[in-house]
Amino acid sequence: MDEGLKNELQKQGVFTTTLEDIYNWGRKNSVWPLQFGLACCAIEMIATSMARYDLARFGAEVFRPSPRQADLMIVAGTVTKKMAPQVVRLYNQMPEPKYVIAMGACAISGGPFKQGYNVLKGIDRYIPVDVHIPGCPPRPEALLHAFMTLQQKIADQQLTGVNRPRHLQVDAPSEFTVPKFGEHDLEPSSNPAVWQAPALVR
Amino acid sequence: METLEQIKAQIEAAVPGARLEIIPNDSPSAQRSLLVAAENGLAVAKFLRDDPELHLDYCSNATGVDWPEAELTEKIKVKKVVDGVEKEAEEVKKTVRPAYLEAVYHLYSMAKKHGPIILRLRTENRVEKNHLPSLTPVWRSCEFQEREIFDLYGIVFDGHPDLRRILMWDGFKDFPMRRDYVAPDDYEYEPTPHDDVLEKAKQHRAQEVKS
Q: Given an 8 Å threshold on Cβ–Cβ distance, is B169 in contact with A82?
């Protein structure tokens, strides 16, 4: 609808919107995160949900204890290789539409433990991540900013066309390979459908 | 508390046939430790805990050390006869120290407020003779720490109540804290590589150039 006409109608007391806008508006303001934390970042996540930073202002106050009721997974903390299959399984158990925020240096890259033998070098190797937050740990403001970024991302989603989100595409996968414990490493060591080692342009 | 020499003498008196050795420490802390033969380990530990004077009732830390095979060089003075004249000459003697694994225990006394006494137990080698007596029956606090040593260094503790891997998963085959451990190659680009990472980065760069 033409923007000028919309404004003109508003002056007359007629409000118009599109189905897409109202659908996305509803979704972005009721994102329920999954209640789980892996390390110290989880403490910041808890602080974000409490009165001082008050994640409830964004419609995300209900941390769900079950993945079946959650829309958003905040991967808050170090993902060890021993924990990675469980994280992927929790993600698989969440119903679509679902989103992931990787919170903190460890969750996005392995962080200070990157050279270690038992830390996954970023959860984006196994599941698609929507927002990455750097920091060790990130401040609650950073998580709020990530949350607002995610809300913007949801608001911008188109319900039709090629770029429509995953939950509206019939063939798009909603479950991702759960890695298995191998003799030397997780098998596979990353999911090529989700992640590939960044190519260097020199 | 008595000196380490006195404690060593006490143990030798209490545990017949105990083979003990005091390991010197050149670092600023100068914290010496007591090397105990594996077969006496449990008896020595029981003595240290139950002796009314020592009363070491608390094992604060148990950890592992991996000693790979090393060539030790030692300078010794040898008298040589050169052209009928006796001269003192220095000769370098090389000995090969076989590889072994070590478990180190730090013992304190809560009751007497003294410590630490440091015990070292050595395995014969790193492959199949990697057994040591578990000290968990003496100090409960060793349980998880011995499991961790088993997990990361591969020392098998005989007499441990529940010897399983604790940090890595059960099917894992390697021992990550051993010096010859090679981590899986999941290198990815880093902006400022250094040390080992720099070496890895160079290797990957060479492969990239080849392909």
A: yes
